[in-house]
């Protein structure tokens, strides 16, 4: 018995794979076109990815125990606000890198224009502030010195603008 390839059956099978149903209760196409609906569906993964940090052991949310619904709501509000600030910072950094043609190393040392802000936080971990007291009186002056800022740190700080540069003492 000879075997032969049945292209029509293979094509029919391939066309049936990878299908899924999307549904909405917005039936007005003027409000939400099919293309806009599909784009909203695709963008959903970005939002869900943002909340992935809640499960991350680095965030240590499992060490928080709250008894009342009001406290849980308050924590969720704070965490949502933090996520918003995180995303704005990451967006601004990536925009500056893209606009200026800059690159930063990722976890494996590859130069990229889309680093995660979490990675940038890890890179910046070694920076410390030393407080030096000048004088020996009650009214002594305290001078703060930013320590351990290397060339990569300085490069990252510059992308965040003049205010960040003044905080870290970068000229």
How many beta strands in the DSSP annotation? Answer: 4
Sequence of strands across the biggest β-sheet: 1-2
Note the quaternary state here.
Answer: single chain
Unreliable stretches covering 5 or more consecutive residues: none
Helix content: 40-55%
Order of helices and strands: HHHEEHEEHH
Strand content: 5-15%
Radius of gyration: 26 Å
Total helices: the number is: 6
The profile of the biggest β sheet is: 2 strands, antiparallel
Structural class by secondary-structure content: mainly alpha
Ends: how far apart? 81 Å
The whole-number mean of residue pLDDT values reads 88
Gross morphology:
elongated
Descriptive notes:
By secondary structure, this protein is mainly alpha-helical. It contains six helices and four strands. It has helices at 7-16, 34-50, 69-100, 117-123, 151-159, 162-168, and strands at 104-105, 111-112, 128-134, 141-147. The relative contact order is 0.06. The mean pLDDT is 88.
């Amino acid at each position: 018995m000879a075997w032969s390839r049945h292209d029509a059956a293979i094509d029919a099978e391939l066309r049936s794979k990878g299908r899924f149903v999307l549904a909405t209760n917005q039936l007005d196409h003027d409000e939400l076109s099919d293309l806009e609906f599909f784009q909203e569906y695709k963008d959903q993964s970005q939002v869900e990815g943002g909340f992935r940090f809640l499960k991350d052991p680095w965030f240590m949310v499992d060490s928080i125990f709250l008894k009342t619904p009001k406290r849980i709501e308050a924590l969720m509000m704070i965490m949502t606000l933090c996520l918003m600030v995180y995303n704005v910072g990451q967006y601004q950094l990536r925009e500056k890198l893209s606009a200026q043609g800059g690159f930063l190393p990722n976890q494996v040392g590859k130069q990229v224009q889309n680093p995660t802000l979490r990675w940038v936080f890890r890179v910046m971990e070694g920076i410390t502030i030393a407080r030096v007291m000048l004088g020996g009186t009650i009214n002594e002056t305290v001078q703060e010195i930013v320590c351990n800022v290397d060339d990569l740190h300085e490069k990252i700080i510059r992308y965040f603008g003049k205010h960040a540069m003044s905080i870290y003492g970068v000229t």
